[in-house]
Amino acid sequence: MTEGGRVRLDQLPEWKALAQHRAELGEVSLRELFDGDPKRADRFGLTVGGLFLDYSKQLVTDETLRLLRELAVATDVAGLRDAMFGGERINVTEDRAVLHTALRAPADAVIEVDGEDRENVVPAVHAVLARLSDFAERVRSGDWRGHTGRRIETVVNIGIGGSDLGPAMAYEALLPYTARELDFRFVSNVDGADLHEALRGLDPATTLFIVASKTFTTIETITNATSARKWLLDGLGGDASAVARHFVAVSTNAEKVAAFGIDTANMFEFWDWVGGRYSYDSAIGLSLLIAIGPERFREMLDGFRLMDEHFRTAPAEENAPLLLGLLGIWYGAFFDAQAHAVLPYSHYLSQFTAYLQQLDMESNGKRVDRSGVPVTWQTGPVVWGTPGTNGQHAYYQLLHQGTRLIPADLIGFARPVAELAPELAAQHDLLMANLFAQGQALAFGKTPDEVRAEGVAEELVPHRTFPGNRPTTTILADELSPSVLGQLVALYEHKVFVQGAVWDIDSFDQWGVELGKVLAKRVEPALTEGAEVPGLDGSTAGLVARYRALRGR
Ligand code: F6P
User: Fold this and answer.
1) What per-residue confidence (pLDDT) applies to 2?
2) Pair 176, 417: CB distance under 8 Å
3) Which one of 98, 158, 163, 164 would you pick to mutate in the ligand 1 pocket, going by the greatest count of ligand atoms within 8 A of its CB?
4) Does the beta carbon of 9 sit less than 6 angstroms from any atom of ligand 1?
5) Which letter does DSSP use for residue 399 in this model?
6) Cβ distance 312 to 85 under 8 Å?
7) What region, left, alpha or beta, does residue 293 occupy, with left being phi > 0 and alpha being psi -120 to 50 degrees?
8) What's the ipTM?
């Protein structure tokens, strides 16, 4: 029993039933599962909004799925889900509500945050959205002018983590929907090279900076924003009033925004109940909103909303985030899978997996349960991947023939984007043929007999055999529209939620990022001034000394 009164996950009868079931399944193969059930592909498919999920190539039977759903019931996933949607403070270590779903609620919804006055947050969400939309239209139309009276040509988003990955990913994903006459750049790294490269060739008179930071204390962002302000003022003759026309802020912290020198009239607000990695559909998405315009942004929010409603109301058997979450738990716990690959067959989703890394690994990279007791089961996997087909010529070898089991999601679209020239659009079939072929090869492999039948020399047979049984979910949509992107992101948000709920961890804090931040602050004066750092270990002290010597200090 945990302190919170919940029976520990691995002591639950439902968990033990799954362990027993796994033992009984033994070396079950996807070939057998398909051979024994011609209707498997029809049954193990799910349509939600514009997404179709084929999970027939998962190493599961009806019984597995039933037992996994029972585990979800035993761990009260639905109860925690309803608490989240209801504004309860389910982020226990920060005592905060988790209400990113309110960001996409319709204007007439009532969502109250648990607290003294149980305030309905929806009017504030829509008020900020209206201000954001108005500002975005002004920049897009050229009504918003820079200090010298010229219109804005480039928008530079300065932020990191959730204040960068979301807008950067979605901007890339929705490039065909963007105002192409505007240029967008994203700066995150405290490495000065990032800002240097982003500012190359830009004219301060036509550049707008969005400083995006929930806390407005993040060292990378504040350092880059300070350097960007200097670049701007140097370029515009040093008149400090120029800042007001070239800098806007997105934050929950008005005080810090003002202290930085940005007029809070140029600040767009969000709230502490929006986690950084769940924030790109809040004001943090301002760069994206300028890029695609309010109408497309609304379509994206509606896509999120569609998946929210599905997650909230669909029965367990048809609930896509629940299913994906439970499948991940199955492989982590009973196949010792350490990783999960997300492999989009879309050039426009080149940042999607990087975005998911924060969403998943910052949320579920936890080692103690919600009451602080170390867990004795696996939590979040290593999430990784890049767009196919590039990955096929790099690391898919390990997926097919390596010693590790790495479940994967293959994401593809029926239609190429409309603006492609006919000869480029024609390449789409080849792209998708690769996706389908990979799912097939991973699942069914190639037996030694099949290899031999091709006349391969006996000593090469083991090398050319593919064991198969590598599970995948294929997610297929018509096209990568703003709505479909919203649906996809919300699908993964809720999948991560389901896993955190079952694992009994707080998916909404991120204390694990703190130690490095504190130590960096302590070490920096040692690099710059040779200051003594009390208690510095021998290895780090040696590296610091070597660094200083290399820098001639
Ligand atoms: O360091 C991790 C983190 O706190 C993330 O959770 C967050 O998205 C990122 O830093 C940026 O934080 P902020 O938006 O406050 O600058």
Assistant:
1) 54
2) yes
3) 163
4) no
5) H
6) yes
7) left
8) 0.98
Task: Return the amino acid letter for 14.
Answer: E
Kindly state the tokens that stand for 463: 């090398």
* Beta strands 382-384 and 51-54, pairing class: unpaired
Q: Which residues contact 316 (CB under 8 A, 6 or more apart)?
A: 69, 72, 73, 322
118: left (phi over 0), alpha (psi -120 to 50) or beta: left
**Quick one: CA torsion of 463, 467, 471, 476, rounded to 10 degrees?**
70
Neighbours of 134 (CB within 10 A): 12
pLDDT digits (tens, 9 = 90+) for 478-533: 999 999 999 999 999 999 999 999 999 999 999 999 999 999 999 999 999 999 99
Q: Which residue, among 507, 502, 514, 493, has the nearest Cα to 363 in the 3D structure?
A: 507
pLDDT score of 388: 85
Best mutation site among 160, 255, 359, 511 for ligand 1 pocket (most ligand atoms within 8 Å of CB): 160
CA dist., res. 425 & res. 442, Å (int): 27
Q: DSSP string spanning 250-282?
A: EES-HHHHHHHT--GGGEEE--TTS-GGG-TTT
* Residue 269: strand pairing partners: 251
Q: Looking at this protein, which amino acid is placed at residue 141?
A: S
Q: Provide the greatest CA pair distance for the chain.
A: 78
408 φ, ψ (degrees, to nearest 5): -140, 150
- Please tell me if the CB atom of residue 282 comes closer than 6 angstroms to any atom of ligand 1: no
pLDDT at 477: 98
Distance (angstroms) between ligand 1 centre and the Cα of 354 equals 15
pLDDT value for 114:
83
Residue with tokens 């390596």: 402
Angle between helices 219-235 and 192-199 (to 10 degrees): 40
CB 77 within 8 A of CB 498: yes
Contacts of 237-244 spanning 24+ positions with Cβ under 8 A:
239/147, 241/147, 242/146, 242/147, 242/204
- Best residue among 186, 211, 215, 280 to mutate for probing ligand 1's pocket (most ligand atoms within 8 Å of CB) is 215
pTM for this predicted structure? 0.97
| pLDDT < 50 stretches in the chain | none
The phi, psi pair for 7, rounded to 5°, reads -65, 135
CA distances from residue 110 to 208, 271, 487, 552 in whole angstroms, order as listed: 35, 16, 22, 62
User: From ligand 1's centre to the CA of 513, what distance in Å?
Assistant: 9
Which residue is catalytic, options 116, 393, 423, 458? 393
Residue 390's alpha-carbon distances to 198, 309, 394, 475, 485, in angstroms, are 26, 35, 7, 18, 22
Find out whether the beta carbon of 221 lies less than 6 Å from any atom of ligand 1. Answer: yes
162 C-alpha to center of ligand 1: Å? Answer: 6
Active-site residue, 393 included: yes
161 lines ligand 1 (CB under 6 A): yes
Query: What stretches of 52-155 show up as alpha helix (H) in DSSP?
Result: 62-74, 77-85, 122-141
